[in-house]
Amino acid sequence: MKQRTVIKRGVIVASAAVLATAYGCERPNPNKATGDASAQFEQCATPSTGSGNNNPTGGGKTTSASTTTGAGATSGGPTTAATTGGGTNEPEKTELDLRVIDYTEALRTASILLIGDLPSLADVHAIGDLAPDQQKGKYEELIDAMLNDPKFAPRFSQSMIDFFKYTFKMGGQSTTAGEPSRDTAPFFAAQLLVEDKDWTNIVTQKTGTCPTYDMATGKFTAAECMVGATPSIPNGMGHAGILTNPGVQSLFFGNLSFRRQRFFHETFLCKSANETAGGEPTASPGKNVNCPNVAMPDTIVGYSNKWDVSVISGKCNVGRIDFHAWNANIVCSNCHSTWNHRAPLYSVFDSNGKWNAPMGTYPDLTFSVKTPVDGNPNAVLKDWLCVDPAKCPNGGVNYPQWKYDASVGGTVQQLQPINISSNTLQNSTAALQQLGDQISKDDEFLDCSTKRIWNYAMGRADIAEIGGRNWVYLDRNAGDKKNKNNPPGLLTQEALTKYFKSNGYSLKKVLRFVLVSDDFVRF
User: Fold this and answer.
1) Is residue 366 part of a domain?
2) Can you give the residue range of the structural domain that contains 2?
3) pTM
């Protein structure tokens, strides 16, 4: 245990040589600027940095990313240790192997993430004064306080609101008269995390999905979604989490609802919607082209989606937009075979995010969004899907759904079409609720949810913007890299999502799980 004897507080201006001498007796303080000796002690051990040659008297052995020769002469260079002159050869190591546990540094990082501020010096000392085998318990106690103590609630809640505003790319009041607040979706997401609720409610909860927020107390209050002075959906209809949020639907309003589709795809699947990953790529794509009304149909070279391509609209079935178009660089249907199965369900909302019943009867339904052709008409169902019994597969019965198939509980299964031929879309939000149910059970959605928490904790960029990757790869135990150079306690995607499922789909518990993990406390 480090013993404090003499504390000298103040600003010390010294030469580099003086500072180097003082550093050997300087109490580790992760909050201070480099060279600040305002908390300096006599009779204290030199803190370990986890890199470099930690044997100042030489001897030739190193476990760092340095090359050591003879009696302690060290120079930077290779990433693997090489030793001559009395030392022993070390096995090849990765940067993960070189990390060392530092609970005070972990507390500093976690505090910024959870409450947007550095920890007090007293809390840093509370860990540093303990024996190494007691520090973990104190660190976890301080993490739990930031997550649950009411005194931290305003700052913790605000940090989570900021995280979801960044994730959703939205927040604040609209600058256009009549449009709803952009805050309610981030508020609702933050409420689910802060209050330790089932995260799948983000796409399934039927009431109270547009909460208000009290900055003074950090508390959320459930409220119904409004557009102006009227509810965003008719009374008696249930919501489907943020799938029916007026702020989301208004902000991402656009032709054929593809901006809305992109938002939900990237938010819930952690991958760009504007790449092949925007669809459902497979090595065994669905039926390529079946055009009863075309004498010599083209074969779409490079088609890779799971769907039969002719169930969406295009030149093969006289659609107003040719989603069957392709060239050597772009195959529209690779994404649109998936997009076109979702977008009609989002199209019951107008530019203000208010629900409007589609006009007409199935399959001749007209929606609240536009189709980008001459005259800018309102979209009709056949702009997305092939619904003509005489020209389309399945007798024209081609309904919306989340995906062609999905892994549910580890088993890939084909999803059920959402029947919109009755009143599930025309007179209710039942079709959107069915969509939310499909999303909530999709293992890819659950994995994405935990990946976002991992990337947040590890200080990484928005995962959809970096190609769906975790920069610190969560599946490091997979395939031919299994058990290679992996420190004990290393988190994997499988372990993280398993924990998520077994703890009531609580993102708050997942966040704590990451913050106290071996991965997080090593530097």
Assistant:
1) yes
2) 1-47
3) 0.81
